[in-house]
Amino acid sequence: MVTWVRVAWVLCLMLTSDWMKTTHSRDFTLRDIIYLHPSTTPYPGGFKCFTCEDAEDNYSCNRWAPDTYCPRGTSYCYTRHKMDMHGDSVSVTKRCVSLEDCLSTGCVQDSHKGYQVCTACCEGNICNLPLPRNETTAIFSTILPLNRKSKLSVDWPLCFLIIILIVHTFTHI
Hints:
Layout: H1 2-20, H2 30-36, E1 52-55, H3 58-64, E2 76-83, E3 89-97, E4 106-110, E5 115-122, E6 140-141, H4 156-171
Protein name: Ly6/PLAUR domain-containing protein 6-like
Signal peptide: 1-25
Membrane topology: Lipid-anchor; GPI-anchor
């Protein structure tokens, strides 16, 4: 009998612990991102980034970011996060950029003013949701390697080998 009382107590605690979990109204959820994800694009490879200039924090930037596609010639989402010495946001800038703007990501200390500025780039649709806060998150993340071959490039030696194997197989049947 005592065991069942303990089991009921544990189950009751588990139920109430789920109720006590709260989400801050200023947090974006996966559901919010799904609503932002496009179903059609204006051009092949079109994508969106959160975009803002000197917003007070990440929520303000993401909340009021215009829902538009990045222009052709851009491939990445850029984020610049300026923090005070306590790690609190001073300003957030996000935009669509080309490769050249993403070659110097990381964090820089401004010891005179007591600020730290972290920049990050990412490749993908609305990938710049989180803010870079340290060297671990201030990175350049891509979906494919930067030295990838163009889509029209063909691996001729491999094609030649496959053709030889096919011809050899059909001539010996």
